[in-house]
Design a protein that fits this description.
Shape of chain A: globular
CATH class of the largest domain in chain A: Alpha Beta
Largest interface: A-B, 59 and 66 residues
Structural class of chain B: mainly alpha
Number of strands of chain A: 14
Number of domains of chain A: 3
Distance between the termini of chain A: 63 Å
Strand order of the largest sheet of chain A: 7-6-8-9-10-13-14
Helix content of chain B: over 70%
Distance between the termini of chain B: 54 Å
CATH topology of the largest domain in chain A: Rossmann fold
CATH class of chain B: Mainly Alpha
Structural class of chain A: alpha/beta
Strand content of chain A: 15-25%
Helix content of chain A: 40-55%
Shape of chain B: globular
Number of domains of chain B: 1
Oligomer: heterodimer
Order of helices and strands of chain B: HHHHEEHHHHHHH
Largest sheet of chain B: 2 strands, antiparallel
């Protein structure tokens, strides 16, 4: 190949890579979030009504600035989820920096890194963040990416808060620096079964057979392991008539799985899926004209996303999905006081928060509380190694009761030996009239679940 | 154990899917097989076709199959621009065919990044009646969208084959692919023919993207990846330069995928495809329908 050809090829690659560098917004670039950086939000919060008024913004007076590393998939297969997570984290940091939480008095400076949904990149980026002097990490959405990066954080003594990844093994290693604020996969599985058992009982349906379908990464495998573990506790007479995994990224057709299920005709199908495969599965059930008594999205994956309804329209109706958070929660007496957070989110992004943004908001808040505790203990943020240890120690003392934690109906207790928050719970929603409606816990549900779902021809 | 009717249903479903693989591979086959240039951005052109469908349908409310015509024209123009920037300057140089791999890799990164900037990573899809309307023949059911994609696939492949055999420009394309120097000697404008070939290949990729988007719920910047891999497998499996081979290879790959999932499980889906793929290449290195290179 002659010189011109090489030069052209290299120039094209460089141009592509440069555009790529800026493509995912702030994700691939080290960025800083301060109170001054989002002027729009300052005005936004002033418009919030008196009933839901957050604590007034106070003028920052020589606050300590602390760097927090954000590790998320901002490009690659999970980029759209990573972007949503980032919105939650940035909003929490903004509120902390605007002194919306009087108990937190420092400036949180976010240093953002993109995992590209790759394990090796996540580990490399974590090391880079550590070198840049972050005191803690929050991330990293995909369990399969969170696990190795958390292991690296443990090795170098960097506190790591996991607000959303659910794989059990992340908090099963006895790691001292890793803390999870959300439920783990087993708890998701436990609550899924509990919810469906309650709903079946309330509707007088005897469940005799179930099927387990799951995407084959850590997320799907661990959630399904939990479902198998607790199945007979909630459904003593039920048998697993079909179990199958699949690669979510590569799948182009789900006809085979639905045809097998149609032949077995289980009462309930539990499906652990991302968005694309969840949509494709429902489309295929319609194509093959079959629907179980209940199709349940376990693990709060693809079925819990607003895009799931947007893409399926009325075909999404009657789908059950676990949900960490719904705007409905803010109508409850206990959580009404947090409505201003969602109002700010809506002003910024034109829509309500979803489970992932809410979970990441909460994780960032908890980390903020821990950093403040570390500062209050007299730890010097300039002595980075000692300060990280102080933040770790503070995280280990975090206990926030339900009602005091923003947005969520549960509390946080990280004092437990494995640092897995035992209080995190997962509600069950059903899509009715193309809207997510909370149907479990039944005593708090505004609507009654439809069980069994009507067949396609009678909708 | 699934019933015979379900088994037949699956074989038909996967044959249709294979036909769609053939359609997505057609543009690649034309560029790679006929023009001997490697288009690494093939999947990204598919993705641009999907977005073309999304925007034309949602903004103007037009039928997705009219969007396919729009995508064919737009992507054809985009393909020609790409050719001028990334293919023509290197293709005639020593090692030029390998160079196209690198230049189109650059184009691929640019397209994916621009899609990310312009449309965000959020997956999209659009409502259309075709994916929600079903045809049932002898108990075998499929959506109209998939059936149309399959039919368009066969029609496109026949049309391209006939175009190459009967139309003057098509014959010139074949002449350039077989002997560029000889073609130049007899007065064929080789750069112009290459430009048209690349444009046509990308236009077909764009049209395939629209047809896939009518039933596949995943329009996002990386959406072309999964179809890209399938396209490469189909083209190599069929043999470089064969047009009809693409549809047969696509159907064989599709049905093999289906058999892998029926006999074993989804985990074996790709394994069985690649076992068959490698076996065929070991026995026929030129591909299933390709002509063997003769020793000189």
């Amino acid at each position: 190949m002659d010189t011109k050809a090489w030069i052209l090829a290299i120039v094209l690659l460089i141009v592509g890579l440069v555009i790529g560098y800026f493509a995912a917004g702030p994700g691939q670039v080290k960025t800083v979030t301060t109170t001054k950086s989002v002027v729009k939000t300052v005005t936004v919060t002033k418009t919030v009504g008196a009933a839901t008024q957050p604590p007034k913004t106070t003028a920052p007076a020589k606050k300590v600035e602390v760097k927090v590393g954000v590790l998320l998939p901002l490009s690659g297969g999970s980029a759209f989820s990573g972007q949503e997570d980032l919105r939650g984290i940035q909003l929490a940091a903004l509120h902390i920096n605007q002194s919306k939480y009087p108990n937190i008095k420092f400036i949180m400076k976010l240093v953002i890194a993109d995992t590209q949904t790759k394990q090796d990149v996540a580990v490399t980026e974590l090391r880079r963040l550590a070198q840049e002097g972050v005191v803690a990490i929050i991330g990293a959405y995909n369990s399969a990416v969170t696990y190795p990066s958390a292991a690296e954080a443990e090795r170098i003594g960097l506190p790591y808060v996991v607000p959303e990844s659910v794989s059990d093994k992340i908090t099963a290693q006895g790691w001292k620096y890793v803390f999870r604020t959300c439920a783990n996969a087993s708890k998701y599985a436990y609550d899924t079964l509990w919810a469906m058992a309650d709903i079946a009982k309330a509707n007088g349906v005897d469940v005799k057979s179930v099927a387990l379908i799951y995407e084959n990464s850590d997320f799907g495998v661990t959630t399904t392991e939990g479902l198998k573990k607790y199945l007979n506790k909630f459904f003593p007479n039920a048998k697993i008539v079909h179990e199958e995994s699949y690669p979510a990224e590569e799948v182009t057709s789900m006809d085979d799985m639905v045809a097998k299920l149609k032949a077995e005709n289980p009462d309930i199908v539990f499906h652990v899926a991302y968005l694309k495969d969840a949509v494709l599965f429902v489309q295929t059930m319609k194509k093959l004209n079959w629907y179980p008594k209940a199709y349940v999205g376990a693990g709060a994956g693809g079925q819990t996303r607003v895009e799931f309804i947007q893409q399926l329209g009325p075909d999404a109706n009657y789908v059950y999905t676990q949900t960490e958070w719904q705007p409905d929660f803010l109508n409850s007496k206990a959580l009404k006081k947090w409505a201003w957070i969602n109002d700010d989110f809506k002003k910024l992004y034109g829509r309500d928060m979803v489970g992932s943004s809410a979970l990441n908001y909460v994780g960032t808040y908890v980390l903020g509380v821990a950093i403040q505790k570390a500062l209050d203990s007299g730890a010097n943020p300039n002595d980075i190694k000692a300060f990280r240890k102080a933040v770790r120690d503070a995280l280990e003392t975090i206990k926030i009761p339900a009602g005091e934690l923003p947005l969520m109906p549960w509390g946080v207790d990280l004092t437990v030996p494995n640092h897995q928050n035992p209080e995190a719970a997962v509600a069950m929603a059903q899509i009715l009239n193309e809207k997510f409606r909370v149907v479990w816990p039944i005593e708090f549900a505004p609507v009654k679940a439809v069980f069994p779902a009507p067949p396609w021809g009678k909708r | 154990m699934i019933e015979f009717s379900a088994y037949t249903q699956l074989l038909v479903s996967y044959a249709i899917l294979g036909g769609v693989y053939g359609l997505t591979a057609l543009g690649l086959s034309l560029i790679w097989g006929v023009m001997k240039a490697v288009n690494w951005a093939h999947g990204d052109f598919l993705m641009v076709g999907m977005y073309t469908a999304f925007w034309t349908v949602t903004l103007f409310g037009i039928d997705p199959y009219i969007a396919a015509i729009v995508a064919f024209i737009l992507l054809g123009l985009l393909g020609m621009v790409t050719h001028v920037i990334a293919i023509e300057p290197v293709v005639e140089k020593p090692g030029g065919h390998e160079a196209t791999l690198l230049t189109t890799l650059g184009i691929s990164v640019i397209l994916e990044s621009l899609a990310l900037i312009l449309w965000s990573p959020s997956p999209r899809s659009y409502q259309n009646v075709y994916k929600n309307t079903f045809i049932e023949i002898l108990g075998i059911r499929t959506s109209v969208a998939e059936a149309i994609a399959f039919v368009v696939s066969i029609v496109s492949i026949v049309a391209v084959d006939q175009f190459l055999k009967r139309v003057r420009i098509g014959k010139a394309i074949r002449a350039v692919s077989q002997n560029p120097i000889g073609a130049r000697v007899v007065g064929i404008d080789v750069p112009k023919i290459r430009l048209m070939t690349f444009g046509l290949g990308v236009a077909l990729a764009g049209m395939a993207g629209v047809l896939v988007s009518t039933f596949y719920p995943n329009i996002r910047p990386l959406a072309g990846y999964v179809w890209d891999i399938a396209s490469y497998v189909v083209v190599i499996f069929a043999g470089l330069g064969t047009i009809y081979g693409v549809i047969f290879a696509g159907i064989i790959i599709g049905v093999t995928e289906g058999l892998g999932t029926i006999i074993f499980s989804n985990a074996f889906r790709q394994i069985l495809v690649y076992v068959v793929f490698l076996t065929v290449l070991l026995l026929r290195p030129q591909g299933l329908f390709g002509k063997a290179l003769r020793r000189v």
